[in-house]
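Incident log, support desk, overnight shift.

02:14 A customer reports that sequence design results differ from what the structure should imply. Their input is reproduced verbatim below. On-call engineer (initials T.W.) acknowledged and began investigating.
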């Protein structure tokens, strides 16, 4: 990871152990540098597949069943036949055991339609079963970035609507979000804030977005944002703690007037926002409500 990528919402503390990890590739455990998929793979050629990001904390994969529900729902929606759930969980457990992993680990579970006789859109050209890759790495969130807070810039590229591309489908195809992030980076920001087709705030390019107004948490109506597992967990925990949550439409003007803001994601958990379009949050980085959310979520993570 170079110096520039340390400002990413996906940044993490470097760990030399990751140079020697084993990777699951279609049932085989191979050294990281030897992990390969075919150039005829539907995921490589077309982004045809689904994935999940999982976090291992003190021997427990957070929200495992919710992640698997999303994976299998997405696979079903694109007519991708997966192995039985118990078999997939056993493969994850075997990889973690082979790498000696028990804590502070991020797992990327990637499933594609598989190898095709030629690269085209037609799924009938697949010549075998799905390609399954499980990559586990030691990753701790970037503490310096959390202390500084993310700088967000609003992208001209919009989040898609469900009739165009349903973001509840955790697809490998991420080009529009990469374009949005490139815009943000070019403007000196760390992450892109993205609007929906009506101009309401939707999400960031790789994380879900919340603002704090008074003692209330606001987040989008969910129509055009990622079906984030951490987002759903934060919403549930905040509600159970007696907090007020408003899930609905709000504008950039309302966002600029927020007291605090933060993003959520599997790796980073809760990451405070420092500024939006050059405007500093008036409550500062990681204000009192954000800190309360962090504490509630931290208790959940530690079990």
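02:41 Re-run completed on a clean worker. Output:
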């Amino acid at each position: 990871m170079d110096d520039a990528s340390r400002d990413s919402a996906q940044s993490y503390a470097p760990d030399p152990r990751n140079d020697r990890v084993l990777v699951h590739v279609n049932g085989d455990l191979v050294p990281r540098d030897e992990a390969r998929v075919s150039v005829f793979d539907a995921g490589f050629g077309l982004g045809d597949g689904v994935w999940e990001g999982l976090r291992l904390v003190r021997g427990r994969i957070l929200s495992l069943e919710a992640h698997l529900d999303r994976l299998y729902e997405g696979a079903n929606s694109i007519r991708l036949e997966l192995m039985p759930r118990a078999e997939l969980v056993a493969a994850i457990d075997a990889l973690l055991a082979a790498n000696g992993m028990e804590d502070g680990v991020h797992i990327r579970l990637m499933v594609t339609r598989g190898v095709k006789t030629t690269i085209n859109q037609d799924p009938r050209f697949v010549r075998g079963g799905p390609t399954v890759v499980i990559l586990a790495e030691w990753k701790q969130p970037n503490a310096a970035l959390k202390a500084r807070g993310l700088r967000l810039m609003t992208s001209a590229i919009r989040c898609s609507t469900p009739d165009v591309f349903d973001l509840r489908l955790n697809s490998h195809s991420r080009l529009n979000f990469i374009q949005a992030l490139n815009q943000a980076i070019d403007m000196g920001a760390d992450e892109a804030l993205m609007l929906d087709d009506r101009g309401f705030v939707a999400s960031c390019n790789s994380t879900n977005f919340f603002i704090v107004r008074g003692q209330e948490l606001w987040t989008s109506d969910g129509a055009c944002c990622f079906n984030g597992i951490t987002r759903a967990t934060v919403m549930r925990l905040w509600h159970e703690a007696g907090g007020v949550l408003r899930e609905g439409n709000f504008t950039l003007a309302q966002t600029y007037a927020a007291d605090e803001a933060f993003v959520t994601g599997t790796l980073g958990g809760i990451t405070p926002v420092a500024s939006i379009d050059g405007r500093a949050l008036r409550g500062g980085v990681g204000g009192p409500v954000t800190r309360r959310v962090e504490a509630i979520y931290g208790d959940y993570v530690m079990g």
